[in-house]
């Protein structure tokens, strides 16, 4: 037997020059008979793997554009009598197909398939499924469809729902959902194929339809499943629920949860997670919490994804203490929190100005044996600096270094920005130098933070020098230009700001509303109100997302009022209201000051603001009207009785009252 293996290895070595031949004992492979005595059979399955000795890696034909060929020796597939549909040598072909598919060596795989076709060998459907799976991993849906169409004519292999589902899955995994539906329709509707869909087929089609937003069609397919002698499984229900939730049809999705349990299909954690996530995004935390309780009652243990979804919803609503309590409950239920869990709560605490509480959670996290990642460090460092806690932020930075952790660019960015906020741009430059030495390339955010820091300390010349340096060695973006223009205008350097503005336009960048507002502010401060007005009109011609905001309007309103152009200010206010921009407290203060100082006789502004409230109510701008009413009360300028009546009428509409009641109930139960 040993001599036989040596003989067969030599035979294959001649077929694969400079190759590596690996002999694997496979008792399941039918014995290969040889006419050469004294060897009657060889109980080895031979797998030939081309091998490059120089680079010690497996050859792939697509790496060398076909320059290297791996010829298949005819001796391997020596002609021999057929045994039914099986020919001696078929098992070797199957092994080659499997190995080339696993290696994604599609050129060699094609050579094998061509030879099989020429010799009119019969391939089993299992081989095609292996190939389809390989095409899927390589993102080649076209190849999968093409081979599926050749299965019968070229390889005498009958197509069944198994191979059909494999190709359908490849198409869907490539997010070609419309193509998947067309493929399904063509194959199922073809009489010559005679393929009947099974549950997996329906699940895939429902998934494709939901991804395309065709939820009603997906429901029709779902109702058709029992008529095809199939029973929907948990994947079917979960996929359809996800589609309904994405279309904001959450009540229907919840009803489907009840239906599946009546039908004897038990929900999985994924099923509950779909509904809980949708309810949390909607802000209905009470129903989400009830679903979690329902999970426990059904013996379905919430996963970390379930807890993370609820915690995220609580943080979005500002219910951070409840989020921390849920974290403790999660640990009690022996569900291990991950980076997302801790990161979500810490980020929520920092956003609500509770960075110190974030530090306490950070310490608790470390005590539980969970090492914080760089994003947690960056969030805490940034939050501490924003709250003016310089010492605590630097202590956390040192803690990171002492633990041997290597900060990434996100941590460096948070530290540099924080130091600049504290008026320490020189120290921030030292951190930047250390960051570059550690192999990190600064981004636009870091450079913008440094420029802000120099402007804050009154060192505008350093900001300009930094911009000149990054302009020559780094690609500036709109954000860098906006920061520089804003800083220059604030420091009265209008000429330099205009130069940067022109340079920005010449490079093809479109200024945002902040850049426009900064330039208008700079022009108005130097008495060039008309140029500022011209720039404002230019801003109005831009696309909707770059329209003036309340800050822009306030800048021009203030400029007009200072010049005594009250009528122009009123016209601008009307334009502001027509464009749907609500006035704020600053707007009211500008107008009230002008009415007192610029008019003869002076006015207290009560009638003016009262009329403004009525106009906003007519436009159903409830929030804007409420803001002005608050200003009036603070200034001891009470609205008229008729205005009060209109305000109460708007606030006390049945739908608004019911919404307020629902909100109160949710806060009580959640």
Automatic annotation (TrEMBL):
Ranges of the PPR repeats in the UniProt entry: 198-232, 233-267, 268-302, 303-337, 338-372, 373-407, 408-442, 477-511, 512-546, 549-583
Annotated keywords: Repeat
One protein family per Pfam: PPR
Organism of origin: Trema orientale
Cited NCBIfam families: PPR (TIGR00756)
Gene3D superfamilies assigned to the protein according to its UniProt record, in alphabetical order: Tetratricopeptide repeat domain
Keyword Phosphoprotein applies: no
Tagged with keyword Oxidoreductase: no
Name of the protein in its database record: Tetratricopeptide-like helical domain containing protein
Family: Belongs to the PPR family. P subfamily.
InterPro entries, per the entry: PPR_rpt, TPR-like_helical_dom_sf
GO molecular function, one term: mRNA binding
Coiled coil: none
């Amino acid at each position: 037997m040993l001599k036989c293996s040596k003989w067969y290895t030599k035979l294959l070595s001649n077929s694969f020059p400079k190759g590596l031949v690996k002999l694997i004992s496979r008792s399941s492979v039918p014995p290969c008979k040889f006419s050469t005595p004294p060897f009657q059979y060889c109980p080895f399955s031979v797998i030939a793997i081309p091998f490059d000795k120089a680079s010690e890696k497996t050859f792939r034909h697509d790496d060398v554009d076909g320059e290297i060929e791996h010829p298949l020796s005819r001796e391997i597939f020596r002609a021999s009598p057929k045994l039914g549909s099986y020919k001696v040598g078929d098992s070797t072909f199957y092994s080659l197909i499997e190995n080339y598919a696993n290696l994604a060596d599609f050129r060699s795989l094609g050579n094998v398939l061509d030879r099989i076709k020429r010799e009119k060998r019969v391939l089993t459907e299992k081989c095609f499924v292996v190939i389809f799976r390989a095409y899927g991993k390589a993102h080649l849906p076209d190849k999968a469809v093409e081979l599926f169409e050749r299965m019968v004519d070229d390889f005498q292999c009958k197509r069944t729902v198994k191979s059909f589902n494999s190709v359908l899955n490849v198409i869907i995994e490539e997010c070609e959902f419309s193509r998947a539906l067309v493929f399904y329709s063509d194959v199922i509707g073809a009489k010559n194929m005679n393929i009947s869909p099974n549950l997996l087929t329906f699940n895939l089609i429902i998934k494709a339809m939901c991804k395309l937003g065709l939820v009603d069609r997906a429901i029709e397919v779902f109702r058709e499943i029992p008529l095809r002698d199939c029973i929907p499984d948990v994947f079917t229900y979960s996929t359809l629920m996800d589609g309904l939730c994405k279309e904001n049809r959450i009540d229907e999705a919840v009803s489907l949860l009840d239906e599946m349990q009546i039908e004897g299909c038990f929900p999985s954690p994924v099923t509950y997670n779909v509904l809980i996530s949708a309810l949390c995004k909607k802000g209905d935390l009470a129903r989400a919490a009830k679903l979690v309780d329902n999970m426990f009652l059904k013996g379905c243990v919430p996963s970390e994804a379930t807890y993370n979804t609820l915690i995220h919803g609580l943080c979005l609503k500002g219910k951070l203490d409840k989020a921390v309590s849920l974290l403790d409950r999660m640990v009690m239920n022996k569900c291990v929190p991950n980076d997302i869990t801790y990161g979500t709560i810490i980020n929520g605490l920092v956003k609500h100005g509770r960075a110190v509480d974030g530090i306490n959670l950070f310490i608790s996290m470390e005590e539980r044996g969970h090492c914080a990642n760089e994003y947690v460090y960056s969030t805490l460092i940034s939050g501490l600096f924003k709250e003016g806690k310089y010492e605590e932020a630097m202590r956390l930075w040192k803690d990171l270094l002492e633990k041997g952790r290597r900060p990434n660019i996100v941590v460096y960015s948070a530290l540099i920005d924080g130091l600049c906020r504290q008026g320490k741009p020189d120290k921030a430059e030292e951190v930047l130098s250390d960051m570059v030495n550690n192999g990190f390339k600064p981004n636009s955010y870091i450079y913008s933070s440094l420029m802000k820091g120099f402007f804050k300390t009154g060192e505008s010349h350093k900001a300009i020098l930094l911009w000149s340096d990054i302009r020559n060695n780094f690609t500036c973006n709109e954000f860098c230009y906006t920061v520089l223009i804003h800083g220059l205008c604030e420091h009265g350097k209008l000429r330099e700001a205009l130069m940067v503005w022109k340079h920005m336009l010449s490079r093809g960048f479109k200024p945002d509303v902040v850049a426009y507002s900064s330039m208008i502010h700079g022009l108005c401060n130097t008495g060039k109100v008309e140029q500022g007005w011209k720039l404002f009109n230019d801003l109005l011609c831009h696309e909707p997302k770059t329209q003036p905001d309340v800050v822009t309007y306030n800048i021009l309103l203030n400029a007009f009022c200072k010049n005594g152009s009250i009528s122009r200010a009123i016209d601008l206010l009307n334009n502001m209201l027509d464009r749907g921009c609500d006035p704020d407290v600053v707007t009211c203060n500008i107008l009230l000051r002008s009415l007192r100082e610029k008019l003869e006789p002076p006015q207290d502004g009560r009638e003016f603001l009262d009329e403004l409230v009525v106009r906003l109510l007519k436009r159903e701008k409830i929030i804007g009207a409420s803001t002005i009413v608050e200003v009036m009360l603070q200034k001891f300028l009470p609205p008229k009785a008729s205005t009060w009546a209109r305000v109460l009428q708007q606030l006390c509409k049945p739908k608004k009252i019911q919404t307020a009641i629902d909100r109160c109930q949710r806060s009580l139960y959640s």
